[in-house]
Amino acid sequence: MIKRVMTVFLVLSFMGSVAAQQELDPRHLVEAPTAGLLPRGSFGLDFRFYGGNGILGEIDVGLFDRGMIGISYGARDLLGNSAVIWNPRLEFSGRLRIVEEGFSAPALAVGYTSQGYGAYDETLNRYQSKSKGAYVVSSKNFNSPFGQGGVHLGINKTFEDGDGDGDLSGFIGVDKAIGKDFLVVAEYDFGLNDNNDNALGSGKGFLNAGARWMVSKNLAVEFDLKNIFRNGTQNPQPDREIRIVYFERF
């Protein structure tokens, strides 16, 4: 199965591109971080709407040319008459690009995020999809007659190990521009930190994909399909989510 995923990603990457426009250069694919950054003196708002009337909001700020920081918070059951279930705490993130992209060399960034995705499990002290924790990620953009795109590869160490599984893991992903206004993304998380006896995953890894529409140079709307392999027993069907991203300069 992993070989099939790698083959699909490689085929997409060779259809891909050189550095996309800033508006199309993603800082995240679906959940996976890239080596992309916000420009200095700008901020990004990211809202994710997921199952159980859940919403996750994040704000990121480009502090300088090679670094940005962010803060996020969310809740479930925001609509309806049930009690709102707030996430247990604010989550934080930061990213520093240590190597700029060259003609043949990828960009390289190190970062940290404590934000996982989906519902928070109080028993296991983790999100449905664990946070990446500390990570290193490389990103390379390509250009071809078929349009723009990029390939991303990373390793990460989560600190959400209340289930007894804090192993080193990794992820790969691609983005592909379709014209000037659309972007498709796909990623595969190996899930090596979510496959023990108490884990929510079952060893297949997590395949996610999304389609992003650039409504304007500042606003994007995205539809995501997550856990396509149906990894684990809690989600018999893939998760469907909506994401709204806004970018602005100070």
Task: Write structural notes for this entry.
By secondary structure, the protein is mostly beta strands. It has a single domain, classed as monomeric porin ompg (Porin, Beta Barrel), CATH 2.40.160. 5% of the residues lie in helices and 51% in strands. The strands form two sheets. Strands 1-2-3-5-6-9-10-11-12-13-14-15 form a twelve-stranded antiparallel beta barrel.
Q: What is the secondary structure topology, with strand pairs?
A:
Layout: H1 2-14, E1 42-50, E2 54-64, E3 67-76, E4 85-86, E5 91-99, E6 107-113, E7 117-121, E8 126-129, E9 133-144, E10 147-157, E11 168-178, E12 182-189, E13 206-214, E14 219-226, E15 239-249
Antiparallel strand pairs: 1-2, 1-15, 2-3, 3-4, 3-5, 5-6, 6-9, 7-8, 9-10, 10-11, 11-12, 12-13, 13-14, 14-15
Please give a quick description of this structure.
With 250 residues, this protein is mainly beta. The protein has one domain (2-249): Porin (Beta Barrel). Helices cover 5% and strands 51% of the residues.
Keywords:
1 helix; single chain; 250 residues; 15 strands; mainly beta; two-stranded antiparallel sheet; globular
